[in-house]
Amino acid sequence: MPLDAYRINTEPYYEPQDTEIDIFTAAYSERLPVMLKGPTGCGKTRFVEHMAWRLGKPLITVAAHEDMTAADLAGRYLLEPSGTVWHDGPLTQAARHGGICYLDEIVEARQDTTVVIHPLTDARRILPLEKHNEIVPAHADFQLTISYNPGYQSAVKDLKESTKQRFIAIDFGYPPPSTESTIIARESGADSDLATLLVRIAERSRNLQGHGLDEGASTRMLIHTGRMVRAGLPLAAAVRAGIVLPITDNPDIRAALTDAIAACVP
């Protein structure tokens, strides 16, 4: 099958936080597009991978960026030894053959690029390929999922209302402490005491959000830190390299964060 390479054969580990699995399942059953909203590193991409595995559907992931064009999504003509040949883009592949297309951090793309998804996210469920003179009707198994971080919204980088209102939305946050500890232990190989300590460190950093930090330590950062400790790095060095230095370049904020972390380390 055309999309077999995009099938996920091993269950991606995911700890549910609320009713997100039920919401996504219901949306997919009706082939409604889904929008995942939440801070960076909180599990949005892992959730989509888990749902693709759970539903048994191929998953094509596209990392949006400011230089991405509509042709990057839809497709383009390329010169080959045999001549000029049309190549479907990832969005067209998913729409034509049936799969989940996941556009990660969609607000990073230009608005004139994202409008290409509009005909696929309403009752038409079509993808016009103007350069190929073709209209691709969406396969019955096609579904579109996008994600973005509301914390980075601005007048320049935000979704149009005409785009937002086409989607079912699921709100993500960092998991509750007990769940986050379980995730860190499972994903990093850290013992439960270290996982619990890393969650306490994260809570201290998240308390500084809006007071010098745009965001606190993500679950992903905690997993990386736990893996560094497992590799033999002392805890203090792992926390500095995995949390403090990546999260801010401001020396005063780094000092405040270091002090806050020190207060919860035995």
From TrEMBL:
Domain ATPase dynein-related AAA positions: 33-167
Residue span(s) of domain CbbQ/NirQ/NorQ C-terminal: 180-263
Pfam families: AAA_5 (PF07728), CbbQ_C (PF08406)
Protein's UniProt keywords contain Nucleotide-binding: yes
Domain of life: Bacteria
Keywords: ATP-binding, Nucleotide-binding
UniProt similarity note: Belongs to the CbbQ/NirQ/NorQ/GpvN family.
Protein name: CbbQ/NirQ/NorQ/GpvN family protein
Species of origin: Bradyrhizobium diversitatis
